[in-house]
Design brief:
The chain is about 45% helix and about 15% strand. It is built from 18 helices and 13 strands.
Length: about 425
């Protein structure tokens, strides 16, 4: 098949959550089909990865996302009664390029990663699959409680508008992928059709093998420590580490005076780097390889108060043999067979007490059952087969023409006019 792949960010390199999943999908489609990739990038450093990414596609168009244009368009969308998330990713140049490719390349399938790219996929007669990953509308609804009341209304409004967009997208596409049954349930409550399919995240268990990495001098110097990993300009992660530091870490340090807190992940905000003023806290910034940091930890934490979908940080820590303490929200999407092997707690005092016990048993090993579950549940061959089956089934749907007429109406009614043409090239 010839596939058009639309992504809101360059999938390569797969060094953070959304890129890990989109790259996995791109790689598997490219192994079996001819793929054209159209995407944005918002980090100048990503420009050097455009050429390496060509290995996984026949044609590639990557456009620099304009900081000013994106915010201007989001503001206008808000005033027009539209969700501002898709508007952030609108580009007249991208729209023109995609339409031109659809006219000339005779695609058998359009694959869309992220709801914000659905606006470019108007192509009656061509089957389309979209990966929403999780229900963004619910995540925005969770943001409401973490924001000052003066702006909470904005997050509540965006949640409501995104929920409506998600409903229309699901109705208009041949299949909609999400990472967990919980995400599917949210979309079904919105009145979505049976086209919602769960495709779990892949985990390379062989890569996350503690025996394949060595500890650096810095890591040895920081021990003992608990670790949080993730993209550190992402609100749920920022909220998690500031909550842990403010409500749990002091209690932990009273019981274990030499304990440290390592925050490992790219683009830490000032709120995060300020935590590093405490000599017991280390903020690493971007790291070329997270595995040594995980291997050196006495425990990994995921005290998420805002969460949707599967937390890769938990799976990666478990694969590295590191005990994990997580909130109920963070653990809710994990396979039930893994839950007995985690500390799952929301109460700060109990969370801290559990970490104290882990710190007092630094040589305690995870059960072999954990590795077994990870290997079987997130198996590459199994998930790749499921993904290929979903893609092929979408192209064979007898009602694809009717569904795409609905999708075209969605795209026409929600795309942002190209009032800043010529920018972002």
């Amino acid at each position: 098949m010839r596939v058009l792949f639309l992504a809101h960010r360059l999938p390569y390199p797969p060094n953070k959550g959304d890129k890990i999943r989109s790259f996995w999908e791109l790689r598997h489609l490219a192994a079996n089909h001819e793929v054209d990739l159209f995407c944005f990038y918002d980090d100048d450093g990503d420009a050097r990865f455009i050429e390496p990414a060509r290995e996984f596609c026949t044609n590639l168009y990557a456009e620099r996302l304009s900081w000013w244009r994106s915010r201007w368009q989001s503001s206008l969308a808000l005033l027009r009664g539209q969700a501002f998330s898709p508007a952030y990713f609108y580009s007249a140049t991208m729209a023109h390029r995609v339409k031109q490719a659809i006219r000339t390349r005779d695609y058998d399938l359009i694959f869309v990663y992220c709801s914000s790219m659905a606006q470019y996929a108007s192509a009656p007669g061509i089957p389309r699959v979209i990966d929403l990953v999780d229900a963004d509308s619910d995540k925005w609804a969770q943001y409401v409680d973490k924001k000052p009341s003066a702006i909470a209304w904005l997050y509540r409004l965006e949640a409501r508008r995104l929920a409506e967009l998600e409903r229309q997208i699901v109705e208009g596409f041949s299949a909609t992928l999400v990472t967990t049954a919980a995400e599917a349930a949210i979309l079904n409550r919105q009145g979505a059709s049976s086209n919602v399919v769960v495709l779990e995240n892949h985990l390379n268990v062989d890569y996350f093998d503690p025996h394949k990495v060595e500890l650096t001098k810095d890591i040895i110097r920081w021990q003992p420590y608990v670790i949080f990993t993730g993209q550190m300009d992402y609100l749920p992660n920022i909220d998690a580490v500031t909550f842990f530091y403010g409500e749990v870490f002091g209690r932990l340090k009273e019981a274990v005076p030499n304990i440290h807190f390592v925050i490992a992940g790219r683009n830490p905000t000032r709120e995060v780097t300020d935590l590093g003023k405490d000599p017991s806290v280390f903020v690493t910034g971007a790291t070329p390889d997270m595995r040594p940091f995980l291997k050196g930890a006495v425990a990994a934490i995921a005290p998420m108060r805002i969460a949707r979908g599967v937390q890769n940080k938990i799976l990666e820590a478990l694969a590295m043999g590191v005990p994990v303490a997580a909130s109920r929200k963070a653990a809710s999407a994990l396979p039930p067979a893994l839950l007995p092997h985690l500390v799952v707690e929301d109460d700060p005092e109990k969370f801290g007490d559990a970490l104290v016990e882990l710190c007092r048993q630094p040589t305690k090993k995870l059960s072999p059952e954990v590795h077994k579950v990870l290997t079987e549940r997130f198996n590459e061959e199994l998930l790749a087969g499921q993904f290929e089956s979903i893609v092929r089934a979408a192209t064979e749907r007898s009602n694809s023409l009717d569904s795409h007429a609905t999708a075209a109406r969605y795209t026409d009614s929600h795309a942002v006019p190209g009032f800043v043409s010529g920018q972002g090239r």
